[in-house]
Every structure is written in C-alpha cells, then in structure tokens.
C-alpha cells in the first residue's frame, strides 16, 4: 500500500538502454561523467541529475546530446556517494530520504566542478541544466552563483524555492501540463513572482499533455504522440543555452 503514495514520480516513462559516450572521472571529492565534443570548445554545461542519480542512462544521454551541440558536458554526483533513489524503494520513505539530499546545498560541489571545467577543460562560459531535483538545484544556483552564465530548470520542484525569485542570470523553466507533482497553479504563481521580482531574462513554458520527466525519460518511439513535445523541449533547451553561452 505504501508504494501507492508517490511524491516524486520521476520513474514514469521508459528508460533508455544507453551506455554513454563519455567517461567517468574524479573531480575533487566527487565523481563525474564527462563528455567532450570532437572539436575544441570553451563552453560547458553542468548537468544536475534527478533523484535517480548521476549514473542514470537517460541523464547521460542528454549530456551526450549537449556535446553533439558543441558543449563540454559534465554530470557530477551531487549526492556525493550517497545512494540514488531506486524505483523499487518504498515511496513512503521518500520524504525522509530526500531530506538528506538538499538541492539547496550543492554550492561546494559546483565550485569544485567550475574549477575543473576552467582549469582542466578550458571552459570560459559555463551554464547549468537540471531535472526535477536537479531543476530545483538550478533555481538555487541561478539565485546566488555569479560564475554561471545561464540555467535551464526542467520540471524543477518549485516549492523548494517558492519565496525566492531574484535571479542573477537568464533562466528557462520547462514544465509539463500533466505533471502530478508540480501543479499548474504553482507554475502560474512562479510566473507572477518572476514578473514582479526578476530583472534578468527568463521564460516559463508549459508543454501540452506532458508528464513529469518528459524531456529526459520517455522513449519517443514508444510514445509517438509525445514525440513532438519531447523534441521541442530538447530543442528549446539547446536554443536557450546557445543564446546565453
């Protein structure tokens, strides 16, 4: 019975059977997945994983997609060795589990990754994207980190930072219309607060009929009706990064 309560249904949709084109490296005190384009690049994107962690094939697929668009992509282990959530876990324990993994306490890891990207990869302009838990982390970083140029928050849990909207950098927010954990009323309120308080460029976009995790979790060939929106979300993400990086 406990599993019927799913406060964060990130495992909706099908997982990619995907190995990744990059490599795992040690970056300071954390591990990270890194993928670099064939040509030299001075632009990089930090990819912040969802509750399923930095080794999820879906997230690595997106990192590799960024690389094919000319970016150095790095997906660090923001859980710093703690176990990622498993779909088989009891969802009744989720709230206690997530309390030990605070999306608002990623600054130390981000600083280490920024130094690595600048010193080891030659990155001069760095942005950040994140999914669900990672989307909330993006919002946190856009509020306070001066070294990042832009961010894309994909179905980030709004309630985590609902009282903070003075973004430092241009930020793009992606949401699904049918997201069970991010009601449209929250999205509307976010837009209102950003309009009142935000002095940098931002965009909030809702994709029709889409559920939580649609950009990086569903297989386009299995869900043909969703394919246009999945492709649109990915294209919008890349276009935003291209504009500000």
TrEMBL record:
GO terms for molecular function: hydrolase activity. Keywords: Cytoplasm. Gene3D superfamilies: alpha/beta hydrolase. Belongs to the dienelactone hydrolase family. This is Carboxymethylenebutenolidase homolog. It comes from Hylia prasina (green hylia). Residues 30-245 form the Dienelactone hydrolase domain. InterPro entries: AB_hydrolase_fold, CMBL, Dienelactn_hydro. The gene is Cmbl_1. GO terms for cellular component: cytosol. PANTHER family: CARBOXYMETHYLENEBUTENOLIDASE HOMOLOG (PTHR46812:SF3). It is found in: Cytoplasm, Cytosol.
């Amino acid at each position: 019975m406990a599993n019927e309560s799913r406060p964060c249904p990130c495992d909706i949709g099908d997982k990619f059977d995907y190995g990744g084109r990059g490599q795992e490296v040690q970056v300071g005190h954390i591990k990270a997945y890194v993928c670099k384009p064939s040509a030299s690049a001075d632009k990089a994107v930090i990819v912040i994983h969802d509750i399923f962690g930095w080794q999820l094939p879906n997230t690595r697929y997106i990192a590799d997609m960024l690389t094919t668009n000319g970016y150095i992509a790095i997906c660090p282990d923001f859980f710093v060795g703690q176990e990622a959530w498993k779909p088989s876990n009891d969802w009744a324990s989720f709230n206690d589990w997530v309390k030990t993994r605070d999306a608002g306490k990623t600054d130390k890891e981000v600083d280490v990754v920024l130094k690595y990207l600048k010193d080891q990869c030659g990155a001069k302009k760095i942005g950040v994207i994140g999914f669900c838990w990672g989307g909330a982390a993006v919002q946190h970083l856009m509020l306070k980190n001066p070294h990042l140029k832009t961010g894309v928050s994909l179905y980030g849990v709004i309630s985590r930072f609902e009282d903070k909207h003075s973004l430092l950098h241009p930020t793009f927010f992606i949401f699904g219309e049918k997201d069970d954990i991010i009601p449209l009323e929250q999205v509307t309120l976010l837009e209102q607060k950003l309009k009142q308080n935000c002095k940098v460029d931002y965009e909030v976009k809702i994709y029709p009929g889409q559920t939580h995790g649609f950009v990086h979790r569903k297989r386009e060939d299995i869900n043909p009706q969703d394919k246009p929106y999945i492709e649109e979300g990915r294209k919008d993400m890349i276009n935003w990064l291209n504009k500000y990086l």
